[in-house]
Structure formats: structure tokens, C-alpha cells
Write a structure and sequence with these properties.
single chain, about 160 residues, mainly alpha, two-stranded antiparallel sheet, 2 strands, about 35% helix, disordered C terminus
């Protein structure tokens, strides 16, 4: 339920107490308002209904709650037990520092202002973007060292996200 407040009610059901979450008032639609954008009813042929029923029955299996684990709680319990036994606990890496957020529109405007206009050698003078001539040099190719560094950094990010 991760860091958000929830309304809940505890109800007695025989010899068991049930905890049920509720909605806040702003999460409940007003039944007095009409919803005009709802799709209309759709008719289905007997063949379509039979095929849908067959598909649902083929994918239906008994519920086995034991087949699912709360792995987060399992990891927390393992850490607690390791600390209780006096084992050294490795802290997770610090979260990466936030990047310098740049106003994209402002950066694009500045880059257009510094792009030389055709034939003037100065900043942009007309309202149209210019294209580079075919004699312009292509961008330099990445060196093998830069390619390897890019692969290594992208692979390490993937591995850290998976863990």
C-alpha cells in the first residue's frame, strides 16, 4: 500500500476479522451524474459467445495461493535474520544524483539562434530552419573505447534494475 493513506474498515465475519479498503470521497463517482460517453450495447453472435466461453474455460485453473510469495517481505526477513546473527549487512548503492533538468524548448531555441543561417555566417535571421549543405562533414564515429564504455554502462544499469 506503499506510502499512500487508505481508508479501511474492519468487519467481523464469524470468528475472523476482515480488513477491507475503502475509497475516499473524491474517488467515488457521483451516481446522479450521467455518463454520456459510455459505449452502447453490442450484440454478439452465438459463435462469438461460444468461442469466448471456450477460451475462458481453457485458461481457467484453480486458485493456488501457495504458488505466490511476497518476495519483498522475504528479503526483509532475511536481512533481519542476518543482522540478528551478527552478519555484516551490505547497504544498497546510493541512488544516483538527479540530472540537471533543462528546459527543452529553451535549449532548442538557443541552438537555433546559434545555427548559422544560409549565406550570412551569423545567427538565425529568418523564421525558417536551414539545412546543411552536402559538403558538411559527417559527425565523427565513436571510437571502440567509447562504444565499449557505452555497452558497459548500459549493461550495469540493466543488471542493477533486475536485482
Amino acid at each position: 500500500m506503499h506510502g499512500k493513506q487508505h481508508l479501511a474498515v474492519i468487519r467481523a465475519s464469524g470468528h475472523v476479522l476482515n480488513l477491507e479498503t475503502l475509497f475516499f470521497a473524491d474517488e467515488v463517482r457521483d451516481p446522479k451524474k450521467t455518463l454520456d460517453d459510455l459505449p452502447g450495447t453490442t450484440g454478439f453472435s452465438k459463435g462469438e459467445l461460444a468461442m469466448a466461453t471456450q477460451l475462458i474455460e481453457a485458461m481457467t485453473e484453480p486458485w493456488k495461493p501457495g504458488a505466490y510469495r511476497d518476495t519483498y517481505t522475504d528479503r526483509v526477513n532475511e536481512l533481519i535474520e542476518a543482522k540478528r546473527q551478527g552478519n555484516e549487512i551490505q547497504r544498497a548503492d546510493e541512488a544516483p544524483q538527479s540530472t540537471n533538468v533543462v528546459d527543452l524548448l529553451d535549449a532548442l531555441k538557443r541552438s537555433l539562434d546559434t545555427t548559422p543561417a544560409a549565406g550570412t555566417g551569423r545567427g538565425r535571421s529568418s523564421g525558417r530552419a536551414t539545412t546543411k549543405s552536402s559538403s558538411a562533414k559527417p559527425p565523427p564515429k565513436k571510437t571502440a573505447a567509447k562504444k565499449a564504455a557505452a555497452r558497459k554502462s548500459s549493461g550495469s544499469r540493466t543488471a542493477s534494475k533486475a536485482s
